[in-house]
Amino acid sequence: MKKTIKYLVLLPLLCLMGCKDDCPQSCPDGRIKIGNDCMCPSGTVEYQGACKEKHPSYFWVDSTTCGCISGELFIAYNQTDLKDSNSKNNDGSFTSQFTLAYNNLGRWTGVKYYPKNDSLYFWWFSDASFFDCQKNSFATGKFYENKNKLKLDIFFFEGSEVDFESRRNPTDSCTLWMSNRF
User: Fold this and answer.
1) How far apart are CA 126 and CA 128, in angstroms?
2) How far is the C-alpha of 155 from the C-alpha of 134, rounded, in Å?
3) pTM of the predicted model, to two decimals?
4) What share of the chain is helix, strand, coil (3-state, %, to 5)?
5) Span 144-167, average pLDDT
6) Fewer CB near the terminus (10 Å): N or C of the chain?
7) Strand (E) positions, the chain?
């Protein structure tokens, strides 16, 4: 009986000790062991130390001149919205909703997409509390490399979103380069 209890206690310990480098828990944050390296699994990409779902319409920051956007910014959109004839406007643009997520806080924002030059206009990009800038903003953007890269020029202004005079006189601006890692 004592031997049986001894084996029941030692067996799990021996199993854990024998696991070493091929243990699933030896790779953090959902990574998998490939050779000697912990890598993001297929269908995901490495971004700021974590594995994120890979999708053609999911964009993460590659570089920025925006000192007040220091956290994790993620933008997503529905690809169908940019070609659906039901959302086409008289000026040839399409109206869509984009999701902005900054440091795990998300919101939807309306966007106009102009297919002739692959450009975007965000009437309302962020309010004063969304980024560290503490200012409201709107943005213009353009897709590059077959919609795999996105350049956003963000314009910050004082006043409310409907204050047209404030929008005409931005107090600051910056640029974000984003990609979907395809």
Assistant:
1) 7
2) 12
3) 0.73
4) 20, 45, 35
5) 86
6) N
7) 32-34, 37-39, 44-47, 50-53, 58-64, 73-77, 94-102, 105-114, 119-126, 136-144, 149-157, 172-179
User: Using CA atoms, how far apart are residues 15 and 12, in angstroms rounded to an integer?
Assistant: 5
Residues 21-77 have pLDDT tens digits of 555 557 877 788 888 889 888 888 777 677 888 889 999 899 999 998 877 888 999
With beta carbons less than 8 A apart as the criterion, state whether 132 and 144 touch: no
The residue behind tokens 């086409």 is 88
* Whether 142 contacts 148, CB under 8 Å: no
Structure-block tokens of residue 142: 């353009």
Take residue 2 and report the two structure tokens written for it: 């004592």
Task: Give the tens place of pLDDT for each residue, 111-154.
Answer: 999 999 999 999 888 888 888 888 889 999 999 999 999 999 99
Domains delineated in the chain: 1-39 (no CATH), 53-179 (2.40.128)
d(CA 16, CA 144): 49
